[in-house]
Known about the structure:
globular, 24 strands, six-stranded parallel beta sheet, alpha/beta, 3 helices, 2 domains, UDP N-Acetylglucosamine Acyltransferase, domain 1
Amino acid sequence: MKQLLLRLFDLVTWPFAHCGWPALCLKCSIAWRNLYAAYIRHQCHRCGELKLGSTDLHLSGLPYMDFGDLVELHFNARLQCIDYFAPTRQHFRPKLILHEHVVVQAMCHIGCIDHVEIGEWTTMGARCYITDHTHGGTSREDLLLPPRKRPLVSRGPVKIGKYVHLGEGVCVMPGVTIGDHSVIGAGAVVTRDIPPFSIAVGSPAKVIRQIEA
């Protein structure tokens, strides 16, 4: 339904964008984003005021999401709370919490079957990936199955503190806690906890500096 509405909106606004009325088209686009934000607020478990940089979002499991005030979601962000995985008939009770002023940049992906929480004023660069689960285990029995038929396995909750910056392309793996005020360099793969006030880079991510008081 959402994709159909987007296509209809494009058809309606196309003439304005190409006939010398771009300002009117921009106003229509802002109105559409506000309307979509209202829909998200209605569907979420809890949601404050949203700032949508785009309506091209991929959101599933909205009733399991909590958004604080002024959370920003940008182009092609993909947020998934999975409560049922059909191939293995698994049921889950996920919880995704984005506190106030969290920024989710373009093409970021957050996958949740257990618990993912991101603290206030934390910023995710483009193409970040955060997950609290893996697609199957590493036992021989699991590896003999086709990948899509392997069960989803929770590896522990993910908690990212406040005032954290995740550089572009950062991956945060299951069971990880990143302390407040930390910086994770672009392309890092975080597989272990990062203390507060740390700078971490690499794959797997390692702390290269801690900021002393």
